[in-house]
Specification:
By secondary structure, this protein is an alpha+beta fold. The chain is built from 20 helices and 23 strands. The longest helix has 18 residues.
Length: 545
């Protein structure tokens, strides 16, 4: 499970981009527009040596062009807005809050001496938040009332009128409509590019619009919009009704603003759900809070409480983990923000510790440490883990399924299970040998673990068959997630001995509690039948109904 907490721990300095995104203050407006056309980010930071002193966005430049300013004028006289600068050691969660609270689309990232490190845009943040959007059920129709009406132009409209509309309405893109259908779209980025190419603004927009247009309907989940925006590298999509008539636009900002609550509540909600689910896992999990003067155990899952008692709660972690070991562990966490497989001895047992540090921004605490502790004695390991693939075995995953059913009955929740196997696995063994089959099983296991969430449970169910349990996930959302997994496996190339390679695919059957049954037998039979149906449809398929 290590390595999948990146959303909480990733630092801005690791994702900030700098190339073609900054210019010295004595540069010209023409130079700045050229940089915008190269970087495709819609923004350039103005520097005085290594310090950020200004910023210009596509919208700023469009307004400057509309006012007929000389393209050879110095840029430092055009940048008047206050800068929003944050430190490179802040997390992407902090940056998300910053952009939403200040109604901006990007933040400037600097080091401790305020030297410019780069820029992080909302689109950059969206790439790292995509997994969480797959768990949201918000659809386009739920947010349209917040976005205002559609402003559009006809194909024979002059570019100068388009520019005027952008400035007047303070919008970044205008669709080109004919007979209520979206033929194309013109963005601020297009206007800047055309300016560099000395195109006459009296020309008709039809000649220069981008086409075709990415469209979505009123029932499209925000999850799909996130995927389209990330894949296509765009910042808005046109919304159409059942007849295909254009009715609105949804932008990145609309999507980002619909993250439920501020980011701190978002994180707390994730941790609360995580704690409930993680209580069912065999690993021991501990949360430690740094209050400045000491490190206190603020939460531990049932596995820890059952083994060591509630007495460890609200006590210094050094009462639980030997002091000399904790000093080394906390020093590593404070420096690298994560640890992996650090071993220590407590009484007559050997434990392995992994985890991460989450910086917090309150007056009462300086950070939290999320720790996964494993007793690595062989009897426990062999009772839960498949030795070939290093994922859970059938015995454990069946037990987890029973506990998840009881949990969902108690909390009136839902979850989905997925049964999958490798298409034509026997042919792989017969053609390349059983060693190749083992390599295929390991590769598929790893790609599943890398694709799903930390809360999702992955096991080898037998032979070449796998089971995935997706807590708090409906059948529709499960199909989105599993289709992404299916595509990754389809594109996977497995390295075999003697320089050979092999391509594989998998088929999937999905069942959802309680829609498809309230007992383990009903769910397993339904998922298995749907897997068989996926095979009969030609393999490399997903069946969820």
């Amino acid at each position: 499970m290590e390595g999948r907490y990146g959303l909480l721990t990733l630092l801005l300095k690791t994702i900030a981009q700098k190339d073609n995104l900054c210019i010295q203050c004595d540069g010209t407006l023409k130079d700045l527009i050229s940089l915008m056309n190269i970087n495709k980010k819609g923004v350039v930071v103005i520097l005085n040596e290594n310090k950020a002193v200004g910023i210009l966005t596509e919208r700023d430049v469009v307004e400057i062009l509309y006012n007929g300013v000389d393209m050879n004028s110095r840029i430092d006289c055009h940048s008047k807005r206050p800068l929003v600068v944050t430190k490179g050691d802040r997390t992407i969660g902090y940056a998300l809050n910053l952009t939403l609270e200040n109604n901006i689309r990007r933040v400037i990232v600097a080091d401790d001496e305020n030297n410019f490190l780069g820029i992080v845009t909302q689109q950059d943040l969206l790439k790292y938040l995509e997994e969480d959007f797959y768990r949201l059920t918000i659809k386009v129709k739920h947010i349209l009332k917040k976005t205002g009406g559609l402003i559009s132009v006809s194909p024979d409209t002059g570019l100068n009128i388009v520019l005027q509309q952008m400035v007047r309405h303070k919008i970044s893109a205008i669709p080109v409509i004919k007979d209520n259908k979206a033929l194309g779209i013109v963005t601020e980025k297009d206007i800047l590019k055309l300016t560099c190419e000395n195109v006459s603004l009296k020309d008709h927009v039809e000649k220069y619009m981008s086409s075709p247009v990415e469209t979505v309907n009123l029932d499209t989940p925000l999850a799909e919009i996130v995927e389209v925006m990330n894949y296509e590298g765009i910042r808005r999509v046109v919304v159409v009704d059942k007849e295909g008539d254009a009715v609105n636009i949804v932008t990145i900002r609309d999507v980002m603003e619909n993250l439920e609550g501020d980011y701190n509540r978002f994180i707390e909600g994730k941790l609360k759900t995580a704690r409930e689910i993680l209580n069912l896992l065999p690993e021991m999990l501990i949360e430690v809070v740094d209050v400045g003067s000491e490190h206190l155990v603020i939460w531990a899952n049932d596995k820890v409480i059952g083994k060591f008692g509630k007495e460890i709660l609200d006590k210094p972690v050094t009462n639980f983990i030997p002091k000399e070991n904790w000093e080394r562990i906390s020093a590593t966490l404070n420096k690298l923000h994560k640890i992996e497989r650090i071993k220590f001895k407590k009484e007559d047992r050997i434990f392995e510790l992994s985890g991460f540090m989450l910086k917090t921004f309150g007056d009462n605490e300086q950070g939290r440490y999320q720790l996964i502790m494993r007793d690595i004695t062989e009897d426990i390991k062999l009772s839960t883990v498949d030795p070939l693939t290093n994922i859970y075995n059938r015995r454990f995953i069946n037990g987890f399924l029973m506990k998840e059913i009881e949990r969902c009955k108690r909390t009136n929740s839902h979850f989905s299970i997925v049964i999958s196997d490798i298409d034509d696995f026997k042919i792989i063994n017969d053609t390349y040998g059983h060693l190749a089959g083992d390599l295929a099983l390991k590769a598929v296991s790893q790609i599943i673990v890398d694709t799903v969430r930390t809360l999702d449970v992955v096991g080898r169910y037998g032979g070449d068959e796998f089971m995935i349990i997706l807590p708090e996930t409906s059948g529709d959302i499960a199909s989105y997630v599993i289709d992404r997994l299916r595509c990754k496996i389809e594109n996977l190339e497995i390295s075999l001995p003697k320089g050979l390679t092999a391509k594989i695919t998998c088929s999937f059957g999905i069942a959802t509690f309680p829609d498809d049954g309230t007992g383990s037998d009903d769910l397993l039979v339904t998922a298995d039948e749907r897997l068989y149906k996926a095979k009969s449809m030609g393999k490399n398929k997903i069946v969820c109904v």
